[in-house]
Every structure is written in C-alpha cells, then in structure tokens.
Amino acid sequence: MGSGDEINCQWCKSNTAVLVTHDRGRGNREILQALDQLQVGAILVLRDLRQLPPRRLALALLQSEAELDQIVTSRHRLRHQLRKSGKLVKP
C-alpha cells in the first residue's frame, strides 16, 4: 500500500471527491505529487480557519459549494484555499 497521502488521494479519485486538507506540501511534496498523479482536486484549509470551532469549517465549506461547483464543471484544476467567508481563492 502507499502513504497516507496516496491512500487519501486514491479514495478521492475513486469516489469523485475533492480532498480537504491543511497539508500544503512544503516540507514533504508527496501530497502534491499524489494530487497531480491522480488528478484529484484539493481545498486547502489555512491556519486561521483551522483554529476556529469545527462548525465554522463546515459552514465555510457549505458556503463555498456554488463556487466549487463552478470550478469543477469548468474543468479547471481545483487547488484553492478556503477562507473563513467560504470564498475559494487560488494560492
């Protein structure tokens, strides 16, 4: 079997899902390689949102739903950061 990153990316690919993570791949680029190799979209949760109660992360994800659908249906690569407001921005 592969690493945790590879397993998570493979699961996302198999289930047509987007990976929500806080791993930016700075120290270990393995997650970036797995995302590229398997062509899996990713939403990066930054520290300011991670420090809030979990319900705020859930709310931000729900608020980003329409924008997420737009990005996915446009066939652009999804590699965006999630803001507290639910806005998705390119890193």
Describe the structure.
The protein contains 5 helices and 4 strands. It is an alpha/beta fold and 91 residues long. The longest helix is centred in the N-terminal third of the chain and has 11 residues. The chain has a 4-stranded mixed β-sheet with strand order 1-2-3-4. The model has no long low-confidence stretch (mean pLDDT 90). Helix 1 packs parallel to helix 2. 47% of the residues lie in helices and 14% in strands. The chain has one domain.
Class of secondary structure makeup? alpha/beta
Global mean pLDDT: 90
Overall radius of gyration: 13 Å
Percent of residues in β-strands: 5-15%
Overall body shape: globular
Count of the domains:
1
* Major sheet characteristics: 4 strands, mixed
Percent in helix: 40-55%
Main-sheet strand order equals 1-2-3-4
Q: What descriptors fit this protein?
A:
91 residues, alpha/beta, 5 helices, globular
Layout: helices, strands, pairs:
Elements: H1 4-14, E1 19-21, H2 30-38, E2 42-45, H3 47-50, H4 54-63, H5 65-73, E3 79-82, E4 88-89
Parallel strand pairs: 1-2, 2-3
Antiparallel strand pairs: 3-4
Please outline what is shown here:
By secondary structure, this protein is α/β, with parallel strands linked by helices. It is built from five helices and four strands, in the order αβαβαααββ.
